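Input/output pair, single chain:
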Amino acid sequence: MTLIAPTLQAWFTERMITQRDSSPQTIAAYRDTFRLLLTFASQRTGKQPCELDIDDLDAELIGAFLNHLEQDRGNSPRTRNARLAAIHSLYKYAALRHPEHLATIGRVMAIPFKRHQRPGLTYLNKDEIKALLAAPDRGTWLGRRDHALLLLAVLTGMRVTELVTLTVGDVSLTNGAHIKVTGKGRKRRATTLTPETVAVLRTWLKERKGQPEDPLFPTRQGQPLTRSGVRQLLTKHIATAAPSCPTLNYKPVSPHTLRHTNAMLLRAGDIDIATIALWLGHESIKTTYIYQHTDPALKQRAVDRIAPLGAKPGRYRPTDALLAFLEGL
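Output:
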């Protein structure tokens, strides 16, 4: 019998924190996964979490836990898959330390990720962007902060976590104006700023003042904005902008929508996919291809290049019995 507790602790401290130097966001997401799993397993087995054995967390229990996430907690397949990825990572580590449990570990590792339909890509058009940026009341300190933040989000495509972790010292408004961004996996990149963004940030920094290590977009108390705080201010300004731009009433707009908006602006400017991937800080260029698939202008140009084929209308009729059979399947 091997308790799961020491293996889980070693996985977090040795593998995730020391060896991989995982980001705080990754650690928090994996922590929440096992907090939920251990609570569920404790209720199912009647054992305290510290008393659970690796064989208690077998494929049957893990499968029941994944069903619980979707059916009882209302999680999406995407969230379910993220939880399973964390479990797979732990069991892969456990396989090296406890080969006596390979049968249990192998069956858990064989649990597949769930296929699901990807939602359509949502982004703002130019009229919606203008309405959103006009929504904050720039006669107030909060309005000027929100306007600067929203403009920066739309014109740089930063993730919301990247936005809220920016400091005053990350901004350089001299020749070659840019902003230093800490992305996923603590990867640093420098994002070039447009003249419009430079002008707004220069005014904001003059008012904001602060030391280089202070947050670029603070709360009234001087603390960094949170992810939920950015979502709330965005929701408020979308509601303000909607009467002048009714299409905003029918779009689910989140902070990530502004990232998609920036990518689509780049595509509209005929920027190649590889450059957009570097700009957004994507780990793989495959992630960026979604913007190419979404670009209606690109698809229309492809259609326009197709020469008329002179095809006659009508239903295809197979001329062979085998082909007819296949056609009828």
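The chain is about 55% helix and 5% strand. The chain has two domains: 4-109, 126-302.
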